[in-house]
Amino acid sequence: AQKITQTQPGMFVQEKEAVTLDCTYDTSDQSYGLFWYKQPSSGEMIFLIYQGSYDEQNATEGRYSLNFQKARKSANLVISASQLGDSAMYFCAMREGTNAGKSTFGDGTTLTVKP
Amino acid sequence: ETGVTQTPRHLVMGMTNKKSLKCEQHLGHNAMYWYKQSAKKPLELMFVYNFKEQTENNSVPSRFSPECPNSSHLFLHLHTLQPEDSALYLCASSQGTGRPLHEQYFGPGTRLTVT
């Protein structure tokens, strides 16, 4: 079974509007972390935001926020006030356990911001 | 230099060649990773090193041979590759142990083409 599911292969959003990228995960571990990365066409993976399984508050980093719903096992990324530079591939990832444990990435969502 | 660097950025090699990919991190991290990113496939974790010790090998063929001489450097030695090994190879690092589930910082990747 896939551990990280991103159901939206591609998304479009108008500049300055907000967009939500979906991510659901599957794990039996109690301790895990959820991450979102951005990959522009240049190829580099850029860390955006992190949510720990025990964190009670939803994580926020500037225009990025993570809508964490633990019971539903979802960790959606919300980008507010989209900018043209936000056009990229976005990956949801999960790491289970402690130390340098296994990482699992979703298939990614391609976001295109329209002017 | 800062962050995670990878060399070369592009590599074209024949199936009988031997080459090495190099990754260096300047972040003081303890854990380093190799990922393979093929077109239309999710990011695949290949190897994990924590304090120079290999902790994960996700059933990677022996034609890929990692080497981690210290916590700052990670190599991927390549020999007798196949055309299906053509992909973007990403190196990442994280703090690893201590506070669990640190985010990973990625290098720009090496675009490998096997002819």
Account of the 3D structure:
The complex is a heterodimer of chains A (115) and B (115). Chain A is mostly beta strands. Chain A has no helices and twelve strands. Chain A has strands at residues 4-5, 10-14, 19-21, 24-25, 32-39, 46-52, 60-61, 64-69, 74-79, 88-96, 103-105, 109-114. In chain A, the strands form three sheets. In chain A, strands 2, 5, 6, 10, 11 and 12 form a six-stranded mixed beta sheet that branches. In chain A, strands 3-9-8-7 form a four-stranded antiparallel beta sheet, with no helix packed on it. In chain A, a hairpin with a 6-residue loop joins strand 5 (32-39) and strand 6. The radius of gyration of chain A is 14 Å and the shape is globular. Chain B is mainly beta and 115 residues long. Helix content of chain B is 0%, strand content 56%. Chain B has strands at residues 4-7, 10-13, 18-25, 31-37, 44-50, 53-57, 64-70, 73-79, 87-94, 105-106, 110-114. In chain B, the strands form two sheets. In chain B, strands 2, 4, 5, 6, 9, 10 and 11 form a seven-stranded mixed beta sheet that branches. Chain B has a four-stranded antiparallel beta sheet with strand order 1-3-8-7, with no helix packed on it. The model of chain B has no long low-confidence stretch (mean pLDDT 88). The chains are: A mainly beta (115), B mainly beta (115). Chain A binds chain B through residues 4, 31-33, 35, 37, 42-47, 50, 52, 91, 93, 95, 97-108, and chain B through 30-31, 33, 41-43, 45, 48-50, 55-56, 88, 90, 92, 94, 96-97, 100-101, 103-109, 111.
